[in-house]
Amino acid sequence: MSNTPAYDALIARSRSQYHLHHLAMIAGVDRETLMPPGGAEARALALAELQQVMHARSTDPAIADLLKAAAQEELDDEARADMREMTRGYTLATALPAELVEAKGLAASRCEYEWRAQRQANDWAAYLPNFREVLRLSREEATRLSDALGLSPYDALLETFEPGMRGAEVSRVFGAMRGWLPGLIAQIRDKQAKESVIEPVGPFAFEAQRALVREMAEALGFDFTRGRLDESTHPFSGGVPEDVRMTTRFREDDFSVALFSTIHETGHSRYEQGSPRGWLGRPIGTWRSMGIHESQSLAFEMQLARSQGFLERLAPRLVHHFGAQRAFEPENWVRAATRVVAGKIRVDADEATYPCHVMLRFDIERALIAGEMQAEDLPAAWDEGMRDLLGIDTRGDYRDGCMQDPHWAGGAFGYFPCYTLGALYAAQWFATIRRATPDLDARIAAGDYAPVFDWLGANIWSQASRWTTPELVQRASGEALNPEHFRRHLQARYLTSS
Amino acid sequence: MSNTPAYDALIARSRSQYHLHHLAMIAGVDRETLMPPGGAEARALALAELQQVMHARSTDPAIADLLKAAAQEELDDEARADMREMTRGYTLATALPAELVEAKGLAASRCEYEWRAQRQANDWAAYLPNFREVLRLSREEATRLSDALGLSPYDALLETFEPGMRGAEVSRVFGAMRGWLPGLIAQIRDKQAKESVIEPVGPFAFEAQRALVREMAEALGFDFTRGRLDESTHPFSGGVPEDVRMTTRFREDDFSVALFSTIHETGHSRYEQGSPRGWLGRPIGTWRSMGIHESQSLAFEMQLARSQGFLERLAPRLVHHFGAQRAFEPENWVRAATRVVAGKIRVDADEATYPCHVMLRFDIERALIAGEMQAEDLPAAWDEGMRDLLGIDTRGDYRDGCMQDPHWAGGAFGYFPCYTLGALYAAQWFATIRRATPDLDARIAAGDYAPVFDWLGANIWSQASRWTTPELVQRASGEALNPEHFRRHLQARYLTSS
């Protein structure tokens, strides 16, 4: 008989939840990729029913007793890490009263649903009352989580996406970047203004694009025996580690959407596929945090796939799939794939300007949750931030301004910083890989990505949730999060003459 | 406040189960159509976990109390029909001890899994011990169900697939058919032996086949806004009424596999899509029985789509999709699509010889469950039955003899009769439609299938589980199940000179 019965009982519960989670993920993937419109309502009810089953299980008061009992058992280090995650999970699951969860869910669904048309119509006035209600309930959620976790309200929200990260730490990092990023962007744009670039000209046949992205996913190590690549309106990586479902989307006039979104999702997917098999179903077996997940997709998409060596190898493959055109001459293609352009839209941004979009949102959402800013103050703060950070005028353009993202409409405050944390982590990983493999660029240029995959596998994928995020960063790279690696990366890629 | 609180509580539970069932169906469809091999184990565990949740809910002792309380409430006729179904469901769900369900599940999984290779190898000796264990546990299951339902053991199994049907009734019907079917088959074969038929010659491009079957599904009224047509190794119709997923499979050398399987599954699918929306989630809202379900697929595939008028209209569409060939001349194509050939394989059988395959299996499985026949007696009984019914020698050929089907290996005894009950019901529906629409054949020949769809919609689809099967048959056709309609159908189609 086991001498850790309480811990074992908790792990059995964790595995049961993992199995139900599997069904939620697959039904969610089906919804985005295959489901006909008539199935939407029944699917929503079905998933809500499953959520209810899972929520009841995750808030079962017996878990509190088991956690107490297991804390007295003789546990090894990995089991103690399981306990850390289970304690956090139980605290989060039980922190919110059911009525608040339901009220916020309804308000967010409504706001997000109506936002689609309101955004199209540039109708801030219609959006405001819905948004105000979502903000009100999100503040209440933050307060409740704050009480349960002993963190500030904003930090409590951040904790749900990026455990261990605090607003003050994000401030420190983003504050440093604010000092050098706008100037660096200006330097890059000055340099690029002197270079001529030929844009690829379509149409690019869907079949050729499909073959290209499949080839890319295979070259980047996606395991098709344990996953699929399908299509959806918005690319994503979903499913479960045993069966990872990633998607892309195809535009006939622009193959780079499918190409780079596939590479991005392949990064997410390899993180999932690289989870230790023996840990699956255990709390330590799951991906670490949103920022770490994004660091994998950006390691693939930005660090690896937009490097000069990778892009130069890609050029002849473009010729192979789409036929020759001048834009695919290697030197031009490298320039075309690394243009830096300040624009209004976050999701269209290049890696240099992207953090500006995030820093703006971080400042605003922190003030909104703290009650220092009200819903109606959002457009003015947005316009001011976009002018300061990127020199762009967004006045009166809510559609491509403060109404462009679904996150806040859906009540997800504390999520945005993870995108840029991911970019910073990715740069830090590559700096570490480069120290261990000084000829990394030559290896990549020769099509040998093993140094990247081996390092990520050993230091990130195989570690899953074994460590807290700060511990993971320290162990993997030998230091805490350091935005300096990102600065050096931008300088090396965009300001060193090649 | 409702004055039927117990009934309402039962309906709420029914709806919850319906929502979870949705996820099981979609995950099952995904498994057959998309899932990569590496996902199989995790999917099996996930579905088993959901089954456990659903089983715990369906056997909750509180249901017994609610059923008792609701029986005292003032319920309308539809609610009383709900009560009939819930009572039956609870009795079936609670009749079997969990250990028996688990033991049978394991034995059946093992037997069915190993059967795949054993069948290929024609290895009866290796199959026998697994099959003996499945039979032993199926007998025990039958005995337990028999106690709970107050039926004979075989009838208790039949009740799980075709509620209200009894072995004695099947015997009566099959006994009558045994008197005339073999002679009728001989007559048909004599007649057809004098006719020359040209078989269509492939290859038939997959894209052309896809276009053909999509066109067929649309012409037959499949609603693509509430369903999909995909591909799988074995065609099926799954999903839920709000989102019906049917599949087909393509063989390059024979388009008729995809064509007729799509038409067959469209019949199943329209039954589902025709469920009354207001009843979904209620016990009366579900499909009635396996036999009634099969009557819909066979009404489409056999009664409608192999009629002379339908086939003649189809001929120019084949030319359109595949190009002209002599086999597609209407008179020839009608003959090619209505050949009667006595063969060893049930799933390849035409509608005239198919019932012989089922009658054989019915006699054997009834004797097996009654303990009048043992597992080792199966091959001899099979050989004898095939010789008597179809004049075919199967001695030594287990692979295409008694080992050809997965049903018994999987522990499904009492299922086979439903196939032929479906064919008999379908003939009875068409006889009824023809009485109401004397020019039915001319309407079909003109491409007007409304008389068929309208009648099925009003009499079968919209009735769901409102009535017991015998009640449904009586109400729809004005008489009890009568195999005479099937005899007349075969005579009219195959022995009347056209």
Keywords:
three-stranded mixed beta sheet; 20 helices; 2 domains; 64% helix; homodimer; mainly alpha
Could you describe the 3D structure shown?
The structure is a homodimer of 498-residue chains. With 498 residues, the first copy, chain A, is mainly alpha-helical. Chain A has helices spanning 5-33, 40-58, 62-71, 77-95, 98-120, 124-149, 153-161, 167-193, 206-219, 255-273, 290-304, 308-322, 330-336, 354-370, 378-390, 417-436, 440-445, 450-459, 469-477, 484-495, and strands spanning 227-231, 237-240, 243-248. A three-stranded mixed sheet of chain A has the order 1-3-2, sandwiched between helices. In chain A, a hairpin with a 2-residue loop joins strand 2 (237-240) and strand 3 (243-248). The longest helix of chain A is centred in the N-terminal third of the chain and has 29 residues, at 5-33. The A-B interface holds A 16, 19-20, 22-24, 26-27, 30, 34-39, 41-43, 45-50, 53, 223-228, 230, 239-240, 242-243, 280 and B 16, 19-20, 22-24, 26-27, 30, 34-39, 41-43, 45-50, 53, 223-228, 230, 239-240, 242-243, 280. Chains A, B: One of its GO terms (molecular function) is metal ion binding. Chains A, B: Keywords: Carboxypeptidase, Hydrolase, Metal-binding, Metalloprotease, Protease, Zinc. Chains A, B: It catalyses: Release of a C-terminal amino acid with broad specificity, except for -Pro. Chains A, B: Its EC number is 3.4.17.19.
